[in-house]
Design goal:
Blueprint (H helix, E strand, L loop, with lengths): L1 E5 L4 H12 L3 E6 L2 H9 L3 E4 L5 H9 L3 E4 L8 H16 L5 E5 L8 E4 L14 H10 L3 E7 L1 E4 L2 E2 H7 L8 E2 L10 E3 H14 L4 E5 L7 H8 L5 E2 L3 H8 L1 H7 L3 E3 L2 H5 L9 H6 L3
Parallel strand pairs: 1-2, 1-4, 2-3, 4-5, 5-7, 6-14, 7-12, 8-11, 10-13
Antiparallel strand pairs: 8-9
Length: about 280
């Protein structure tokens, strides 16, 4: 298949490009500059440089693909406008064609929930509240659409756990918790996420929302203890975490979430990456 993809240089996107290329697909990555273009070329993909906020230009690129995967994110106040532009391009290019469009969401959309499924009520924190309306527009459009919602992604030394826990220590060398650390995080290895994106593209079906979660749901305290190397952990109040990390980000990290990824598994997905606790304990 010829697959057009956004976000090919990001943490998840890089893994998806690698997986798709290894699977024999021809990948075209839409990027915003030459540095990014060179990176995806080294990964075996074709690169096209342009302005992804320009829906007409982006739609023209999407038309040539057998499938489109949207993984890019601005990570700032432009996130909603950016996704709206991408969705508009997808509807224009793929609407009514039967070609699959895979959109990226996130596990936080379901809020506090001890058993998240795709049918669970949405209750997003402020940080990602903008996603819901856009994702619904994707699902309501004349698209063969899937919204993949990754859990907390880790692997190869990257992801939120590495940034929030591994590097956050107090003056005594203890790993700082987010709050008291009693909340669970639904987790998934980045290589397993990439495998799920490839599976969804290759099935070419309208799958709706799809939770990408390994079924391993450690508490933040368990993760921090594994990362501490025996130095111990330092709990803090929720307000202290908000002051340290910013309120919107901390509130997302304070969510207590668990998920099995049962729907994805029913499609043949079989996550096999090392558990996050194991990676942290090994110093990965």
């Amino acid at each position: 298949m010829k697959i057009v993809l956004t976000g090919g240089t990001g943490y998840i996107g890089s893994a998806v490009v690698e997986r798709l290329v290894a699977g024999g697909h021809a990948v075209t990555a839409l990027v915003r500059g030459e540095e990014a273009a060179e990176k995806v070329r080294k990964a075996g993909a074709e690169a096209v440089v342009g302005d992804l906020f320009d829906s007409e230009w982006t739609a023209d690129q999407f038309v040539g693909g057998d499938a489109v995967v949207h993984l890019a994110a601005t990570g700032d106040g432009e996130s909603a406008r950016f996704d709206q532009a991408i969705v508009a391009a997808a509807v224009r290019a793929l609407g009514g064609t039967g070609k699959p469009y895979v959109h990226t969401g996130g596990i936080w959309s379901w809020g506090d929930n001890a058993d998240i499924t795709e049918e669970s009520p949405l209750a997003p924190p402020a940080l990602t509240a903008w996603r819901s309306e856009i994702e619904q527009s994707v699902l309501d459009a004349d698209l063969v659409a899937t919204v993949v919602a990754p859990a907390v992604v880790y692997g190869h030394g990257g992801g939120i756990p590495a940034g929030v826990l591994v590097a956050a220590r107090d003056e005594d060398g203890r790993v700082r918790l987010v709050g008291d650390g009693s909340q669970h995080w639904a987790t998934v290895h980045v290589d397993d996420v990439a495998a799920l994106y490839a599976l969804v593209v290759e099935r070419g079906e309208r799958l709706g929302r799809l939770v990408a979660a390994s079924g391993v749901n450690p508490t933040v305290r368990e993760l921090a203890e594994a990362a501490s190397g025996g130095a111990g952990v330092a709990p803090e109040t929720a307000d202290a975490s908000r002051a340290r990390l910013s309120a919107p980000f901390a509130d997302a990290l304070l969510l207590d979430q668990q998920a099995t990824g049962a729907k994805a598994r029913s499609l043949g997905w079989s996550p096999s990456g090392a558990a996050l606790v194991e990676e942290l304990r090994a110093g990965a």
